[in-house]
Amino acid sequence: MRLVLATHNPGKLTELRALLEPLAIELVDAATIGLAVPDETGGSYVANAELKAVGAAAATGALALGDDVGLAVAALGGAPGVHTARYTERAGGVTAACAELAAQTGLLAAPMPEVRAALCCALVLAAPDGVIAIAESEIPGRLRWPPGDAPGLAAMFEPDPPHVLVEGGVLVHRRVAFARLEPPLRTALAARDRDRDRDRDRDQ
Fold first, then answer.
1. Where in the sequence numbering do the catalytic residues fall?
2. CATH number, domain at 31?
3. Alpha-carbon distance 14 to 136, whole Å?
4. Going by C-beta distance under 8 Å and a sequence separation of 6 or more, which residues neighbour residue 57?
5. pLDDT digits (tens, 9 = 90+) for 47-67
6. In whole angstroms, what is the distance from residue 104 CA to residue 127 CA?
7. Closest of 91, 49, 55, 53 to residue 67, by C-alpha
8. Range of 79's domain?
9. Percentage above 70 pLDDT, the chain
10. CB of 63 within 8 A of CB of 120?
11. How big, in percent rounded to 5, are the helix, strand and coil portions of the chain?
12. Which of 2, 55, 81, 134 could, after both became Cys, cross-link 26 (CB 3.0–4.6 A)?
């Protein structure tokens, strides 16, 4: 059974592969099979993840998993949110984006203020005929300075207990969202296996 990971981001691929490893299924990614990078025009994490998953499933005829994440800062009205990747690119990279975000939120003041934020993730599982399942997470916490060694703007995030930012090489928001998606994913994979076996028996 094959599952397409509908992302071109190497860091996301590493995390998704780690989460999916126990399922022992064939994983392929959008970049490797030459799928175009979709325009993330959705107004929500779910909408952007759905664009990726539905597009990859339609192009390949396989199940596909789409992902969208962001850092939402309360003092900035939830920004950068779904525009986190663009915010980072516009700033000129992660280091510059972290510094800009710290300046915008007053994080560099003494004493350091508490700046509330959340790491958000949406995962969408799709088949060629449409969406199968959606799972989301929103992990509350605060911004930290200086940044840690997590990827992207997550380097500035410190989750509220009992959450741990990185566990098993996977960021907390993706880990929590995947735990919610895993049951329908297993069901969909089992259904595909049954369909394949039925078709094979019919053709014999």
1. 68
2. 3.90.950.10
3. 19
4. 4, 6, 63, 64, 126, 127, 128
5. 999 999 999 999 999 999 999
6. 41
7. 49
8. 2-203
9. 97
10. no
11. 45, 25, 30
12. 2
